[in-house]
């Protein structure tokens, strides 16, 4: 094996360590969302001091000295900006960034529901069995771990079903706005459209409202669309896309590249 000089060796070592511990960033992000830190800073109305932030958090008193470390990770990752007024750590204040604005519960474009489902243990555990999956005939790592495909699992677990549908609706917010604003000509002349795998109908609802001449159908598994109410030109239909899709002028497929 080719020997590395000291500088190259240190860079290589740092590169490996960076990837080993990269999960800390996503789990720290999940932590600050669950603690409500973005909303606390937003509701404060101005950059918040470390002491005020700690006093506002629902944490045990023995854990307060860990908050500066957590915030340091999030500042480094670009989710908060830090302002040092003196050399005293207690005089630090924190403010939101463009990224953390997308974590606010009050933001219509919030990605928090997507974060919550993608980092839920039910969906993260299969990644620990990725190499095992390559060695056997299971269709997905999720099926290997949980004994059924994600869609089947969601049908039997109301918590995951709600989390997943809310996450997909959150993920559809941005692309929906872009599609309607930038691709209007695609919908001109159409009389009907089926959103296959449309979840709770975030995209189809927006399309139906923007193009009232369109009869829109949200088509997804029965447990996904059960109990959902449509409108004058929007309805929900349960079924299996691999068996039959309702007749229509156009089919909408929003592709998600998840290995579940």
Word description of this protein:
By secondary structure, the chain is of the alpha/beta class. It has two domains: about 5-105, Arc Repressor Mutant, subunit A; about 110-260, 3-Layer(aba) Sandwich (Rossmann fold), CATH 3.40.50. About 50% of the residues lie in helices and about 10% in strands. The chain has helices spanning about 5-20, 25-35, 35-45, 50-55, 65-75, 100, 110-120, 120-125, 130-135, 140-145, 150-155, 160-180, 185, 200-210, 220-225, and strands spanning about 50, 80-85, 90-95, 190-195, 215-220, 235-240, 250-255. A four-stranded parallel sheet has the order 6-5-4-7. The protein has a three-stranded antiparallel sheet with strand order 1-3-2. It is globular, with a radius of gyration of 23 Å.
Distance between the termini: 38 Å
Strand order of the largest sheet: 6-5-4-7
CATH superfamily of the largest domain: Vaccinia Virus protein VP39
- Mean pLDDT over the full residue set: 91
The CATH topology annotation of the largest domain reads as Rossmann fold
Question: Spans with pLDDT under 50 lasting ≥5 residues?
Answer: none
* CATH top level assignment of the largest domain: Alpha Beta
Which range best describes the helical content: under 10%, 10-25%, 25-40%, 40-55%, 55-70% or over 70%? 40-55%
Rg computed from alpha carbons, rounded to a whole number of angstroms: 23 Å
Shape: globular
Domain module count: 2
Name of the CATH architecture of the largest domain? 3-Layer(aba) Sandwich
Helix-strand sequence: HHHEHHEEHHHHHHHHEHEHEE
Beta-strand fraction estimate: 5-15%
Q: Helical region count? A: 15
Total number of beta strands: 7
Query: Which structural class should the secondary elements be placed in?
Result: alpha/beta
Q: How does the major sheet shape up?
A: 4 strands, parallel
